[in-house]
């Protein structure tokens, strides 16, 4: 058995057992040695010097090693920052270097585990058939449309967010919160000492005890310095907690938002649960939530501790009756304030939304500045922005107006009525001696002789007064924090909504409401399958549907589409504008759902898989190298062992060989979307395909701005690399590079399609049919021309008749016309 249990031990346990045994043996040996031959003073000194020297040497060596490591880190950091790159750990972590002062700071980011997201779903995903204000916590998470306020839903939302920011007891955040608590308790303790010292100083002053008075002042200053340190530490730790919370939440949200479930696309285009502005949620709302939840800990925690401590102290000096009356008055006023408090949570949440809308308009203008400038559309944008700002301003002003009345009441109750109550309670034993028996006499008063009696009473009064002021202060801070709490409810609701919506997108949790049919082609009516892992591209009876935001149903463009592309079958997808060509690409890429039927495509995206080149060229922020290897990063490039010489070859293949020298090297960073011309941007797009060498490439109008000779070269180059092309274009000239055509938008209602092999009899027949239709139309041209001439003639006659009629009318109104024309002339001459 024993042998078995040793076998089951972990290496750690075995090591510690071994260590214990050797340590015990060494200690016994030393003990015996010392007893046998006690060490002389000289030997002891020698041994101590040796130990010290060894410690110094080991310490210096350790320090040197740390210095070397830091230096190496700095050098790597500089190099990687220049290349816009990082390091990847074996455990999936990423190490990035951020410029900091003149050096760099190393940050290691560990991805959130998938199981964490699964576990959190039960906290964030509510069933969709519960709406409105009523919320039963037994039924799970609250619905997203519940009004923010101080209720059970808020408690659930707040605790759910807390489980993200403080994931375990041993996390860094727990340490910070504990330290913060220690300093808060320390501050309360210091307040108690200050209250007592205050009484003593006044007592000594009145009694004329100079020495004791000076000693009191010295103590006061000493405590003051400790208090100042405590106060600044509380503020510092609060800021640290806020930043720690923000880091956790931001990383968590980024992992959900930017993962392979394409939440960054689906959130705005399909779900719509957070409107248009996830950016506002992630930046401002998150910061406000973290700031106010970190402040809440001190704004509620500290007054709470104060309330208990000061109440306890007052109980000892004033007795139960006085304390009960004090507390009753506090409780009554607190209830009154709570009842009269406006819904700050809801108001704050709405303010956040309006801020987001205003910010989104500005962001949109920046993104489309060139287009707006070409149209000279500043005026219209101005009106839109002014309108949005006015809405925001009106809302904020309303909040301030609502606050005035509440602030007056709050100020009066908390600052003045509570202190008055305190004075009355302390004076009761003085003015109503009958009550004196109910209040215990402090020991200091009982023990002192008659001469010192009044001094002791004064000291007691001053101490009590300070305690009471502190108590009122703690109570008022408690009440103020109820308002903070309501505002926190608003921020919490915003952040919770974002994370819930992200979880909904992530888990594709669009269950139809119970007892109801989902709307046709809504997100809860997805019955098709997207199969990843097929060596080709295939659609079987898939409807092409332009989706609407959840829970509405989408619009059907093509009822059922079926075709298949095998490797080497280059396909050209054509059709009129708006017929659904790009929509098809979106379905293939998995951006839009396969509502019915089966969509099959390769598993991987990129190398040996499928790659999509969107209609609008996208250039990422980063170096020139990053533009070509996108969506890979420099780390991926290094990992795959590819070189910059290959990069140059690819650029030459797309006729951009000059780019590296023109822009100043691969590490140059610029706003590439402004630097490159339209054709250059599209060629950079093609260079990405040539770099990644996927098996299938879907190119949506990817060469529309490229001259046709270069276009041909690009196509031939891609085909030579073994890439099967699926081109979406209206350019007939591209047919020669493809084997198949898929024409959409045919038929009376533009919802039919035709899939043909180029060069076959049926394809020729189809082209000839098109030609015949064109010829027929051309034959009618002469007839249309003569009809047009006839209509022109008739219109001419009608306008002549109209002019005669106007002249007649003009004669009657001639004075005003004359006046108008003189004004125009004078205005013209003035300009
Ligand atoms: N995100 C979207 N949400 C809803 N409807 C959309 C969305 N994008 C496009 N549509 C609609 O789907 C229809 C097809 O659009 P699609 O972009 O597929 O056309 P297309 O054939 O590629 O046209 P073009 O030749 O102009 O690029 C259009 O009527 C368009 O209004």
Q: Would you summarize the structure shown here?
A:
This protein has 831 residues and is α/β, with parallel strands linked by helices.
Explained architecture:
The chain is of the alpha/beta class and 831 residues long. Among the domains are: 147-506, ABC transporter type 1, transmembrane domain (ABC transporter transmembrane region fold, Up-down Bundle), CATH 1.20.1560; 530-622 and 672-758, P-loop containing nucleotide triphosphate hydrolases (Rossmann fold), CATH 3.40.50.300; 770-806. It contains 26 helices and 15 strands. The chain has a six-stranded mixed sheet, sandwiched between helices. Helix 23 (708-720) links the parallel strand 12 (696-700) and strand 13. Helix 9 (278-318) runs antiparallel to helix 11 (344-367), helix 9 packs antiparallel against helix 15 (450-507) and helix 13 runs antiparallel to helix 15 (450-507).
Features:
single chain, 831 residues, alpha/beta, ABC transporter transmembrane region fold, Rossmann fold, 6-stranded mixed sheet, 4-stranded mixed sheet, 65% helix, extended, disordered N terminus, disordered C terminus, binds adenosine-5'-triphosphate, ABC-type transporter activity
């Amino acid at each position: 058995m024993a042998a078995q249990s040793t076998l089951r031990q972990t290496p750690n346990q075995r090591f510690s057992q071994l260590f214990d045994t050797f340590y015990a043996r060494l200690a016994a040996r030393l003990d015996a040695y010392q007893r046998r031959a006690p060490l002389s003073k000289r030997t002891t000194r020698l041994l101590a010097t040796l130990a010290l020297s060894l410690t110094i040497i080991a310490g210096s060596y350790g320090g040197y090693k740390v210095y070397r490591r830091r230096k190496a880190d700095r050098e790597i950091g500089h190099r990687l920052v220049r290349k816009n790159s990082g390091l990847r750990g074996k455990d999936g972590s990423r190490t990035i270097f951020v410029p900091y002062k003149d050096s760099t700071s190393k940050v290691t980011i560990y991805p959130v585990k998938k199981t964490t997201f699964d576990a959190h779903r039960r906290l964030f995903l509510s069933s969709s058939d519960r709406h409105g204000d009523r919320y039963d916590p037994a039924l799970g998470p609250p619905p997203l449309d519940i009004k923010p306020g101080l209720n059970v839903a808020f408690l659930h939302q707040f605790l759910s967010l807390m489980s993200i920011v403080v994931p375990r007891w041993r996390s860094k955040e727990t340490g910070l919160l504990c330290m913060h608590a220690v300093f808060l308790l320390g501050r309360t303790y210091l307040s108690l000492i200050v209250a007592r010292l205050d009484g003593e100083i006044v007592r000594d002053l009145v009694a004329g005890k100079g020495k004791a008075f000076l000693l009191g002042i010295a103590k006061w200053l000493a405590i003051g310095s400790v208090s100042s340190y405590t106060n600044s530490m509380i503020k510092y730790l609060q800021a640290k907690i806020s930043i720690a919370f923000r880091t956790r939440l931001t990383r968590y949200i980024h992992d959900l938002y930017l993962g392979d479930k394409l939440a960054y696309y689906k959130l705005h285009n399909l779900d719509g649960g957070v409107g248009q502005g996830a950016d506002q949620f992630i930046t401002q709302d998150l910061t406000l939530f973290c700031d106010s939840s970190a402040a809440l800990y001190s704004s509620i925690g500290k007054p709470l501790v104060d309330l208990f401590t000061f109440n306890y102290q007052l109980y000892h000096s004033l007795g139960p009756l006085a304390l009960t009356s004090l507390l009753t008055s506090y409780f009554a006023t607190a209830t009154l304030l709570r009842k009269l408090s406006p819904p700050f949570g809801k108001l704050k949440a709405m303010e956040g939304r309006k801020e987001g809308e205003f910010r989104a308009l500005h962001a949109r203008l920046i993104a489309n500045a060139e287009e707006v400038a070409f149209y000279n559309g500043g005026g219209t944008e101005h009106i839109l922005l002014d309108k949005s700002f006015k809405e925001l301003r009106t809302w904020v002003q309303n909040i301030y107006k609502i606050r005035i009345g509440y602030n007056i009441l709050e100020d009066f109750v908390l600052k003045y009525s509570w202190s008055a109550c305190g004075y009355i309670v302390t004076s009761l034993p003085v003015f109503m001696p009958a009550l004196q028996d109910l209040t215990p006499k402090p020991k200091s008063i009982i023990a002192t002789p008659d001469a010192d009696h009044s001094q002791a009473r004064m000291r007691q009064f001053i101490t009590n007064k300070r305690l009471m002021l502190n108590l009122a202060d703690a109570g008022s801070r408690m009440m103020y924090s109820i308002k903070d709490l309501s505002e926190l409810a608003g921020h919490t609701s915003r952040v919770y909504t974002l994370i819930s919506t992200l979880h909904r997108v992530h888990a594709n949790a669009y269950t139809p409401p119970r007892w109801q049919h989902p709307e046709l082609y809504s997100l809860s009516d997805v019955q098709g399958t997207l199969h990843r892992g097929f060596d080709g591209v295939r659609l079987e009876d898939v409807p092409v549907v332009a989706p609407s935001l959840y829970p509405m149903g989408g619009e059907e463009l093509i009822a059922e589409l079926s075709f298949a592309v095998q490797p080497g079958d280059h396909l050209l997808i054509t059709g009129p504008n708006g017929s659904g060509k790009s929509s098809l690409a979106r379905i293939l890429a998995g951006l839009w759902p396969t509502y019915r039927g089966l969509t099959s495509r390769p598993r991987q995206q990129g190398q040996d898989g499928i790659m999509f080149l969107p209609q609008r060229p996208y250039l990422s922020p980063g170096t020139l190298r990053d533009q070509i290897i996108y969506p890979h990063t420099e780390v991926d490039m290094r990992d795959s062992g590819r070189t910059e010489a290959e990069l140059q070859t690819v650029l030459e293949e797309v006729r951009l060989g000059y780019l590296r020298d023109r822009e100043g090297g691969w590490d140059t960073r610029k706003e590439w979307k402004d630097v490159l011309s339209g054709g250059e941007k599209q060629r950079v797009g093609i260079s990405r395909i040539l770099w990644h060498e996927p098996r299938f490439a879907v190119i949506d109008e990817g060469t529309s701005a490229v001259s046709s000779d270069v276009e041909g070269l690009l196509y031939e180059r891609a085909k030579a690399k073994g890439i099967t092309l699926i081109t979406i274009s209206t350019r007939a000239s591209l047919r020669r590079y493809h084997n198949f055509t898929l024409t959409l938008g045919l038929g009376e209602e533009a919802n039919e399609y035709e899939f043909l092999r180029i060069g076959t009899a049926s394809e020729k027949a189809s082209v000839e049919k098109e030609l015949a239709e064109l010829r027929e139309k051309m034959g009618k041209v002469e007839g249309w021309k003569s009809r047009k001439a006839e209509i022109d003639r008739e219109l001419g006659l009608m306008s002549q008749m109209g002019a005669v009629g106007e002249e007649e009318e003009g004669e009657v109104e001639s004075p005003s016309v004359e006046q108008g024309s003189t004004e125009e002339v004078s205005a013209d001459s003035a300009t």
